[in-house]
Design brief:
The chain is built from five helices and no strands. By secondary structure, it is an all-alpha fold.
């Protein structure tokens, strides 16, 4: 009797695992899978190099506006990423982006609205493409 229960339990467990695995969306299997697009592909060395170059160009551009912008480079990169999210929104008000940019760099002293517009331009030309 014990072996029948054990076999039944193992059979149910195997069936459960099989059903779980067939419902998963593994690449290249099942009806849910989609063809891999170039954007979803693994980044190549060229993509990494381009991303690093864009980041360095961004930091250089920000330094040209106000050296205080890049005192903490990680904060500058994080702030730029937040601004890029706003830039890429379809309803982004370009007039308000400069003020947003200024607000994301509170440690930089003496930023003007014109500086905010320059920050947005630098980000659009480098990492927000």
């Amino acid at each position: 009797m014990r072996s029948v229960i054990t076999r039944t339990a193992l059979g149910c467990l195997a069936l459960g695992v099989a059903l779980t695995l067939t419902s998963c969306d593994f690449p290249g299997t099942g009806s849910k899978s989609k063809a891999k697009t170039p954007a979803a592909a693994e980044p190549s060395d060229d993509n990494w190099d381009q991303a690093i170059d864009a980041e360095l160009n961004m930091l250089t551009g920000l330094k040209g506006i106000n050296p205080d912008l890049i005192d903490d480079q990680q904060k500058a990169i994080d702030a730029a990423a937040e601004i890029c999210k706003e830039i890429k929104k379809p309803s982004a008000d370009s007039a308000g982006l400069g003020a947003l940019a200024v607000s994301k760099f509170p440690d930089a002293k003496g930023l003007t609205p014109t500086d905010g517009d320059k920050i947005v331009t630098v980000l659009k030309d480098t990492i927000c493409k």
